[in-house]
Structure formats: C-alpha cells, structure tokens
Write a structure and sequence with these properties.
seven-stranded mixed sheet, Rossmann fold, 11 helices, single chain, 389 residues, 2 domains, three-stranded antiparallel sheet, alpha+beta, Nucleoside Triphosphate Pyrophosphohydrolase
Length: 389
C-alpha cells in the first residue's frame, strides 16, 4: 500500500471516467468585472465543476452579508477558488485557499489567482489563522444524494458538540448541480448556507463594583441569565455643526433591527480593554481607524447601568455601559465603510433634534432611558458651547 493513503482513498478503477479536456468558465461581479476561471479535466472529486455553493458564497461576499474587508479568509475544498478570489478583490487582509493535496488541483487554484489578482497576489501562508469570537465559518452545500441527507446534517451536530454556535442562514434554489442524478430534484436543487461561530465570551461583572467576579460566560448564557457585563457606547459629535453621527442597525439584526442607534457600540469581550473594544468596533462597523491623533478627542463621559428585556423577554440585557464621546470634524460621510451585516446606513443629525426624538420615544430610534439622555445632553452641551474639536 502507498504511503499516500488519501490518494488511494479517492482512486477510481482504470477507465472509470472518460478523458476530458480542461475547460474555462466566467463569473461576473456586481461591478461587471469578469473573473475567468480554469477548470481542470474531469476528476473524481468533481474539481472540474464550478459548484453552485461557491457562487452563492461569492455573492454573499459581494453583497457584504459577510464582510471580507480587512479579514483573514480561509477556504477549504476550494475547487476553482472563486470565493477566495472574490474575497481578495474585496480587500481581505489575507486569503488562504486550499483543496485536496493533489498538484493538478492546487496549481490550478494558483493559476486562477494569477489570472485575476494582478497586483494583490496571496502571501505565502506561514501561520495558522485564528478563529476568535468575531470569526465565522460559512458552510454552503447541497444534498446531492438525498438518501444521505441525515449524514450531511450530522456534521452540524458534531460542530455543536465541539462548542460551535450553528445557525441555518439561508436556502437558495439554484437548480440541480447534476441534473441526471437520482433523487427528488426539489431537494437536489437547493444550496443551504449555515454559519458556525465560536461563542463570544464575556467577563461577568459585579453589579456594584463593575469588577469581574471571575466568571467567563458565553454571550448567549449572559443574555439568558441576565448576568452583568461590560459594553462601550461611542457617540461621535461635530461640535462646530452640533451634529451627531448615528447608525441604522441592519435588518438582519436579531435585536432592534432597522432602528437608528448610537454612532458605534459593542460588548467588551473577555480579556479586552475598553480602548481595544472601541478601536475594534469603530473599524468593524464604520471603517474608522482610531489613530493616536484622533484618540486625543476621545473622552469617557459617564458610566451607566442598562437593565432591559428584549425580544419578549428572551434576551435579558444587563450592561454596565462605558459611555464615550468622540469629537470629529465630520462633514462628508463618503470616507466611512459600513459593515453591512451590522449597519445599513449612517447619517448626521442635529443634536437638539436627535435629543427630542429620543426623548419622545420616536419609533424609528432605539429606546433610551431618560436619565441616560439627560446625562448625555449635559455632556454634549458643554462641548457644543465651546465649539471646539
């Protein structure tokens, strides 16, 4: 027996497949850029096909349902490498693309990159990519053999046993990948998309001292049990124009979707500082880099205890919020890059108008307690009266 057990595992009897020639195909991006892809000759692993699932993932990347910008992207079972190429074109930090360790497949992936990524060729892969609380695994597949559906879905049971949070994200009818195969065509025609995430871990805080009590608990348990945990609220204000930057929460958000909210906010993950969280949330949600110079205009203005039940009591959000004010001379919003899975829109609004809308519980805005708004108004007015950045 050969040392290469994997190679023998996928070997087919001699002349099982008729010899075919390599082919090419194209994918048009939403910006009308043509991505040309070489496909290898017929292969036992079906690497000669451009899979429907890869097209679905590429489109999700393009639509920024899953943002690739400044992210590390690892694609397994890449085939022709379409999602990876799209990710690279969307300014990901690093793209690692791989498949079954067969030279013909790997070399074809490299060739496809070279044809489509002229100035941004992938770096050599020298280290493992770390999946942390903000990372996500996207699994797209079809039940090509419906009688094996139960075994297909067993993968997600195993993922849950390993601690992943599994969510059924979407289904898309693309037509069957292999029309002549047996089994119900309505089952074989659907590309299913699931996401796997490691749970974000929070330090449980003492309600009175705001000091971690030693417990580190997954986000979902924190919200089920109502444990107190830390967060940051960053309000961005131009004191000269008296306008505040606000964001609109994405429609896909589980909590308070499609409502106007704080400029930027986020939970403090276990082990992270307030400043680390602020930098991360500013960059992820609106593409703003908190430079050393800009950080001089960042000030913590008060702390506030948030106690609220959301989604019919399914989420008990007890936060110890650290509220910050960031002063910026903003007039043009074009430089901001939105994380569309979190933020659908940003706009500038006069603080007095915003204050009145929040005070009157305008239904298009997230709700805030009156004493929170009064504290915020007091701090804002101090800055506005000075009209200084």
């Amino acid at each position: 027996m050969s040392d290469n057990l994997f190679a023998e595992m996928f070997e087919e009897p001699q002349n099982y497949y008729q010899e075919t020639k390599p082919s090419t195909t194209e994918y048009k991006t939403k910006n009308n850029q043509i991505i040309k892809l070489n496909l290898i000759k017929k292969h036992s692993l079906w690497a000669h096909c451009l899979w429907n699932a890869s097209i679905i993932i590429a489109k999700l990347f393009e639509e920024e349902v899953f943002s690739c910008q400044n992210k590390n992207v690892l694609e397994l079972g890449a085939g022709a490498g379409l999602p990876s190429i799209v990710a690279a074109l969307l300014n990901s930090r690093m793209v690692v693309t791989t498949d079954f360790p067969e030279d013909e497949i790997i070399q074809n992936i490299k060739k496809n990159f070279e044809m489509n990524i002229s100035q941004k060729k992938p770096n050599n892969y020298t280290d493992c990519l770390r999946l942390d609380g903000s990372g996500i695994v996207i699994v797209a597949f079809s039940h090509h053999r419906p009688y094996l559906m139960e075994k297909d879905l067993k993968f997600f049971d195993l993922a849950k046993e390993c601690g992943f949070i599994v969510e059924h994200f979407s289904d898309k009818n693309t037509g069957p990948m292999f029309p002549k195969d047996p089994g119900p065509v309505e089952i074989r025609s659907v590309v299913h998309v699931y996401t796997l995430k490691l749970p974000e871990m929070f330090d449980v805080l003492d309600e009175d001292t705001w000091i971690p009590n030693g417990q580190i608990v997954p986000r979902n348990i924190v919200h089920q049990k109502g444990f107190f945990h830390g967060s940051v609220h960053i309000w961005i204000l131009n004191p000269k124009t008296k306008k505040v930057l606000i964001q609109k929460r994405a429609k896909r958000k589980i909590v308070l979707p499609d409502l106007y909210d704080i400029s930027v906010a986020g939970h403090i993950s276990s082990g992270d500082s307030e400043l680390e969280t602020i930098k991360k949330e500013l960059e992820e949600e609106i593409g703003l880099i908190l430079t050393d110079e800009l950080s001089k205009n960042l000030k913590k203005i008060f702390q506030y205890k948030v106690k609220v039940e959301l989604n019919e009591g399914k989420i008990i959000d007890n936060e110890l919020a650290n509220v910050y004010l960031l002063l910026m001379d903003i007039n043009d919003l074009k430089s901001f890059v939105l994380q569309e899975s979190e933020v659908s829109e940003i706009k500038l609004i006069d603080w007095k108008i915003l204050f009145e809308k929040l005070k009157e519980k305008d239904p298009s805005f997230c709700p805030f307690q009156q004493d929170y708004l009064d504290k915020l108004n007091s701090e804002f007015m101090k800055v506005i009266e000075n009209e200084k950045i």
